[in-house]
Amino acid sequence: MSKNIELYEESKLYSPGGVHTSIRNVNPMKVFTKGEGAYIYDADGKKYIDYQGAFGPIILGHSHPYVNRKVIEAIERTDLYGVGCTDLEVELARKICTHVPSSEQVLFCNSGSEATYHAIRLTRAITGRNKLIKFQGCYHGWHDYVARNMLSSWDMIGKRDPGSAGMLDEAIDNTLVCTFNDLDDVERTFRENKGQIASLIVEPIPHNIGCVMPQPGFLEGLSELCTAHGALLIFDEVITGFRHDIGGYQKVAGVTPDLTTMGKAMANGYPIAAVAGKREYMQRFNTYPGGDVWFAGTYNGHAVGTAASIATLELMENEPVHEHIFRLGEKMRSGIRGIHERLGIEAYVAGFGSVWTTYFMNNEPKNYSDLQQNDAELYVNYRKKLIEKGIFKMPMNIKRNHISYAHTDEDVDTTLTIIESVLKELVHK
Ligand SMILES: Cc1ncc(COP(=O)(O)O)c(C=O)c1O
User: How would you list the strands of the sheet with 401-402, edge to edge?
Assistant: First the structure.
């Protein structure tokens, strides 16, 4: 019997569905036992070029030797104290405040969901208002403030669409949902909820639906609208942060939000996240004497996450990490466009830097609603076929792919050859 199947069957005995995050339960189901550089291996020993990248954290490559060494060095002398601060926290905070434009001060937590929760509650305390704006299709974590109108079914777009049973009505209804790239919609929402909106949270590039780029002026427009209406702007850079630039997408776009949340690529797969922003706002957290917004966590600033993050940022500072992943990202996108041309396939290859996806539709999507045009069946079948041939991409509709510093030109060439053969098979059946 396949070891994959055997372990998965056992996993289902002990954990509901056999997986530890909802959307990990996919078909084909894999049990992974090894990751090294650009490659991952399943329990049957099959090797894949990995573009899932753990949903984004893996920016340097799996089990990166430098990051691992720095983690091991750190935990041989230090771990967690639950009091005071550590030298590693100071070093990491200094790096983030040096690189990320909006980060005058920063606090560490363990996941992106914690970071967005803290950021949003802080904006409610600062403004004395309750409401929040998010965008249809964006994901900001699992908590009640934001878990609505994520990957909504098409008939629920923009409607009241809580993502989970058990959510508080008050949390759902205080979160208003707008259309990405539509400043008129945001403006109308501010006007209709005058004096009630504490903040607006946005993925500057909504990567949770692949790669929908902000149109010129959109992020600037959000910043202006927030200022005009006395609300705070939160950039959720949990995916874009450190992946698109060491300073985050805010550095690329030249738009500085009031608060920023970060995670994922921050530590190449080790668990740590952060919330950062203007000093005057951050000092409302009760880590500061007299601060009145609760901020805590037993594992905050653990040596494993902080050491891994310092090592990851050091590599970004000292080696051409972004140059490499951007060049390979462009090579991949233009290679795929060439394949589409040769095969006469109408598709839109979207992407930025190291991230890309192929939407099977013939124009650029500007928001979640536009993605209804994508041929979802082809999208998922394409990914499943690629997995069979050793290219791992998430086998799910409108998901993105990630290139890491460990991927090589040869990996991209191999991937393009396999993509061409799979598309030939699927489209010219
Ligand atoms: C943009 C964004 N924000 C927040 C989160 C939540 O982060 P975490 O899964 O670490 O809680 C995610 C996770 O995918 C995300 O993509």
Answer: 348-352, 355-359, 401-402
Q: What is the pLDDT averaged over residues 220-228?
A: 98
Which of 79, 56, 98, 32 is CA-nearest to residue 267?
A: 56
Q: What is the pLDDT of residue 141?
A: 98
Point out the catalytic residue in the list 264, 385, 393, 399: 264
Query: What atom of ligand 1 comes closest to residue 271's alpha carbon?
Result: 10
Over range 320-330, report the average pLDDT. Answer: 98
| CATH code, domain with 365 | 3.90.1150.10
Annotation marks residue 185 as catalytic: no
41 is an active site residue = no
238: Cβ below 6 Å to ligand 1?
yes
What values do phi and psi take at 402, rounded to 5? -125, 140
pLDDT band at 429 (very low <50, low <70, confident <90, very high): low
Give the total number of structural domains in the chain: 2
- The CA distances from residue 339 to 75, 87, 352, 386, in Å, are 48, 51, 19, 15
| Domain interval for residue 371 | 3-63+320-427
- The residue out of 286, 301, 318 marking a domain boundary is 318
Instruction: Name every residue whose Cβ is closer than 8 Å to that of residue 280 and which is 6 or more positions away in sequence.
Output: none
Pair 113, 141: CB distance under 8 Å: yes
Query: Is the CB of 240 within 6 Å of ligand 1?
Result: no
For the domain that residue 223 is a member of, what is the CATH number?
3.40.640.10
Average pLDDT value for residue range 374-383: 97
**Which position among 50, 144, 161, 236 bears the catalytic label?**
236
Q: Is residue 349 left, alpha or beta, with left meaning phi > 0 and alpha meaning psi from -120 to 50?
A: beta
Q: Are residues 80 and 36 in the same domain?
A: no
Percentage of the residues of the chain whose pLDDT score is greater than 70 = 100
Pocket test for ligand 1, best of 151, 264, 396, 402 (most atoms within 8 A of CB): 264
Mean pLDDT of the chain: 98
Distance from the alpha carbon of residue 6 to the mean position of ligand 1, in angstroms: 31
What's 288's DSSP letter? S
Whether residue 176 is found in the same domain as residue 70: yes
15 and 37 fall within a common domain: yes
C-beta 400 within 6 A of ligand 1: no
Identify whether residues 361 and 288 lie together within a single domain: no
Question: Relative to the CA of 112, which ligand 1 atom is closest?
Answer: 7
